[in-house]
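Section 3.1: Structural characterization of target chains.
Under the original work plan, the team committed to producing a structural model for every single-chain target entering the pipeline before any wet-lab resources were allocated. The record below documents one such target. The sequence was received from the expression subgroup and is listed exactly as submitted; it comprises 449 residues.
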Amino acid sequence: MDSKHFDRPSADAIEQLIDSGALDTLRTVLSGYHPADIADVLEELPNEKAVIAFSQLPDFEASEVLDEANSLLTSELVEKVDDERLADLLDTLPMDDAAELLEDMADSTSERLISLMEPEEAREVRQILSYPEDSAGRLMTQDVAALRANWTVGQAIDYLRAIDDTETIHYMYVVDAVGRLTGIVPIRNLVLAQDDVLIDALTTAETFMIAAEADKEEIAEKIARYDVTALPVVDGNNHLLGVVTVDDAVDIIREETTEDMQQLGGSAPLEQPYFSVAPLLMVRKRVGWLVLLFVASFLSSFVLRSFEGLTKEVIILAAFIPLITGTGGNAGSQTVATIIRALAIGEVRWGDMGRAIRKELVVGLVMGVLLGAAGLGYALLLSAGWQVGLVIAFTLPIVVVWSNLVATIIPIFAEHYNIDPTVVSAPMITTIVDATGLLIYFSLATAIL
């Protein structure tokens, strides 16, 4: 059994082997690494050398590298590698992975490659691509072990011995005479049972499944919730179509987390690795939100201008503006991150709006009172006087409570109306809270002073 290094080969070493023409040595070196690590290194090489290194890989390993590569490297390989070989590599992959690669290609390219694939694989990949984008049908593999309810254990084991391309056999899915899913048989129960026992007698009817049209986020949620390694995919009549596995769920979670983090920061999500994105594209991804936030910041300027006379009369008030806006913005950012996570994993829903508001009201009030007391002490330390200290002491609890409420209500509303709550990002909420926080601050200052 060949051993693999669980690290990355050196890009410089690979490039030197290519430059020296030592391709036999290159093949030997690459064979000692995992396809994911090879893909990472190829992404660091100049395109023409990445193609040379890729051409030295055997088909099975090359197909895995193709599956692991980013979209830019994949595009380069598709352009430079012979179509017949690419089709052979797609035949080698699980068809859900092959479909994922093909869907990112131009229609003419994907159709050309599909036409060169083996007929059975081509049929399967066309069927997968017929499902909506980001659905369970797009992510499933049809290589699934399905047992008939009227088989004996002996027949089932003979069937399993005869197949070699199933995606997973942790659970045996049981279907009736027309292919409808009726339950599962854990592999342990199958192995321990006598050969003449009917599969129907071992079947557990309680089966978690997912519709082919279901969104991919539902896959990750169900796999995480029910602690299963795979989910059977069914049509409207419960016919077993395929299976999605836990590795698909991991990829979904990683993609969604990356997208959410970027949107929370006020940027459109990047669809390629960071160093592969051109600066101008990065500008396009960020400038929209930045301009919107810039315009929204006019509210803060308007509030400051409206109370200009007060700040000239009581100059010390200006010294506490960063304290007020910073506290409100930070409180809002903390809350929106917490609420969005709770929405993502189903802990908070539209009907929980009242409970969430009450909870954040209590949290905001307690934190605000503590910060208000600290603000009073800070004002006295700066010799700002008791009156200014009281303005700070009253403003901070109100601003923190208000920030928490805004950061709670807006994401829940967005989720209810099918808007990605991360789009209503922390910078936007911070900008709103800044303006309203200043209005609260100066209004209290006017009343008290």
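Residues 146-251 form a domain with the CBS-domain fold (CATH 3.10.580.10).
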